[in-house]
Automatic annotation (TrEMBL):
Keywords: Membrane, Transmembrane, Transmembrane helix. This is Membrane protein. Pfam families: SfLAP. The keyword Glycoprotein does not apply. It comes from Pseudohongiella spirulinae. It comes from the Bacteria. The chain crosses the membrane at residues 6-30, 42-63, 83-102, 134-162, 168-191.
């Protein structure tokens, strides 16, 4: 696995770390006046990271199996090789990257309904502090709700699949990706435990910025992810 691929995956993981489920909800939980327990925060972050990991492995291993099956079905007297399928996957990755970059310009926090969507998530986070089971449900709900927008993660899966890794290596890489994805929230949790109320202004500032710029931030996220995904594909095509 090349250094360029590692850096691209780290960049995509950090982009994914700014989503509703991986950053916004943890910030709101840390701001809750009821002082959510450390174990419950770790339970929430572990649940959403585990959900992403399972989804990623299913998609990556499934895509790998499909590509292998397609290669086996090719008649022996044709010129097609597994390399052709790998190139087709890389071209598809390039198109996804270009598409992500193109649609990123459509997201604007000034559009009607953007603030209301953020408020609904904030209310759910406030209600979820009542029990560990509700917190796990919130993590799974956030993960499922983000399936349609986890495009950086889907791009990362395509890059990992195209790198032709073993199943074990794929698991380690994707587990590392999911850990990096929740790392900012873990850092805020550690700071909260060490600094107590002194970190409150930082959390409030993040919350205020999120509420004002959630849609625009998503646009930037998709644009950067699209660039990284397309760049990786171009690097393997030329």
């Amino acid at each position: 696995m090349s250094i360029a691929l590692i850096l691209a995956l780290v960049g995509l993981a950090l982009i994914d770390s700014t989503s509703i489920g991986t950053l916004l909800i943890p910030v709101w939980l840390l701001l809750d006046h009821r002082r959510i327990r450390l174990s419950r925060m770790l339970l929430y972050l572990g649940t959403i990271a585990g959900f992403y990991l399972v989804v990623g492995l299913v998609l990556a291993l499934g895509a790998d199996a499909v590509m292998g099956s397609m290669a086996e079905d090719v008649p022996a007297d044709t010129e097609a090789t597994p390399g052709v399928f790998a190139m087709a996957l890389t071209v598809a990755q390039l198109l996804v990257g270009i598409w992500l970059f193109a649609i990123s310009w459509r997201f604007d926090s000034s559009k009607p309904g953007a603030a209301e969507r953020v408020k609904r998530w904030k209310d759910r986070a406030h209600e979820a502090t009542t029990s560990p089971r509700v917190l796990m449900g919130l993590a799974l709900f956030a993960g499922i709700a983000e399936l349609a927008t986890m495009l950086p993660y889907l791009g990362a899966i395509a890059m990992i699949t195209a790198a032709d890794m073993s199943a074990l290596t794929m698991f380690i890489v994707m587990a590392s990706y999911c850990f990096v994805m929740i790392m900012p929230a873990l850092c805020l949790l550690v700071m909260r435990r060490i600094m107590h109320e002194r970190i409150q202004p930082i959390l409030v500032g993040v919350d205020d910025w999120i509420c004002r710029n959630a849609e625009s931030a998503l646009g930037w996220t998709l644009g950067i992810a699209g660039f990284l995904i397309a760049q990786d594909a171009v690097g393997r095509l030329i």
